[in-house]
Protein: NADH-dependent dehydrogenase
Organism: Deinococcus aerius
Amino acid sequence: MIPVRLALLGVAHVHADAYAAWLTSEPHVQPLGFSEEDPHLAAEFAARTGLAHLPLEGLLGAGPGGVIVCSETAVHRPLVEAAARAGAHVLCEKPIATTLEDARAMGEACARAGVGFRTAFPVRFSPAVGQLHGMLRAGLLGNVLAYSGVNHSVCPDRERGWFSNPHLAGGGAGMDHIIHLADLLHLFGERVEGVYARLIPVPEWVLPEHAGVDAAGLVTLSLASGAGATIDCSWSRPRTYPRWGHLKLGVVGTQGTQSLDAFAESITVTGTAGRHWVGYGPDLNALMLTDFLSLCTRERPSLGADWNAGYEALRVVLAAYESQARGRAVGLV
């Protein structure tokens, strides 16, 4: 197999380091480098990863077979459009955009260019998600009555300050955490019809740097199937928490219940630096990136989340913010 030429477009996302590590260790990949507008961030990233920092035009001119978009969410669109014009397949961080207009433009650009678009939803590759999905397809839980999802974490803006900047991120914890569970519902065949959300900003006297940005929330969804769903999203974990956070989903059906914890496979390690949890389960990012490689080579079917999956999840997130602003439930047309 000829190595696939891949590049990173932007490295502002917290996952960029993990992607760089995979690019430089995967034998079937020829990493071309990365583009980044922030010179300070670019210099740090180049020194840390060993990847070359190149202008966007030069990087795309080198002919990548695929690109991974890891910039701030608000600037995904121009990077995706540029990659599509260069004929490169796209793996885009989630949320794929801060507006539906930008998301649609990205999908149209890739469709016109005949390149594939994948949304970075690594949780889809969790064995626990696959097991639950299989049970639902087989009807082992009967008719689903309710879903209850939790996605909590440490606030990522200490490492990447833009995460709590609504102009760049589109929102706060709601934008960061509703998206994964909304995608799992979409994966399981559910269609969201209505959204009611309460997204709570951080009081200025608690954390002045986060004042006005939602740091916690509870979202209630009505589904076309007749089931209901809740998503508990927050940046509630303290800096001393043993790992970044949790992603859990419980399902109640007429014939049984089942729950998943996507990051349950971990052990507790206690040392001079304190206590932390070390995961021993599969590397979900690596599984997602390997799937993207399949899209680029077309040697095997790609099973990752496509543009529509990213778009449908974004619709739910933006509806939650609309519900918060209006103070009532809103419908998804």
About this structure: The chain has a mean pLDDT of 93.
